[in-house]
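Troubleshooting: if your tokenizer reports a length mismatch, compare your output against this known-good record of 218 residues.
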Amino acid sequence: MSSLVSSKQVLSRLGLWERSTACAMVVLGSIDPLFFPYTSKVSPQNAGTQRNKQPPGFATVSNQKTITIELVGSEDRILLWNQISNKLELVEDLTIISVPNPAYTPVFTSWPQKIGITSSYWLTLENLLTCACTTITLEDSRLKNKDVDKILRKWKTGGFPNLERLKIHGRNITNNGTTILEMDWMELNVMVIQTDDGSKNATIKTNVRSIEMSVILF
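Known-good structure output:
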């Protein structure tokens, strides 16, 4: 299959042709069928310049396995997300740029290797507990210290087997007197924790409204 196809072919495959005939799109061969909108046909010779010219929109690509998605909740973007959400394991690095109160909350049926989400208030603890990423970065999260406690306890019992780095930033992640792993905020900083079976260690760092866990790789 050619790595470049016509916009009509791609939109037809997505079921979007009747809704958005003006949108030309590209299929990246190494992660087909992930699709990215552009404002004109893209050739290997002008791909870089076309990316720079595209308007603020659904997705940009810095290479064939790195995707940045702007979550604004339009109909075409919802349909496109539904098409790619079960193939995210083919993506190395996914960044989701959220806007305040998006009209649509994405559902993850697969996970990329790494994920970063700005304005991640919509990502619940239940969602996060299913995450299979190696790196998780959440900005402006609504998770609380008690949620972090559940996450770390799951890791200690063998959960999140792929996880190498976790960072959560949010106004509820703070030194408010609650404990995490039965330790207070200051005690937890630069603490090394271990899985119950002794197979993994991780360093915890706390900061103003953020907490980070880095697994120590042997």
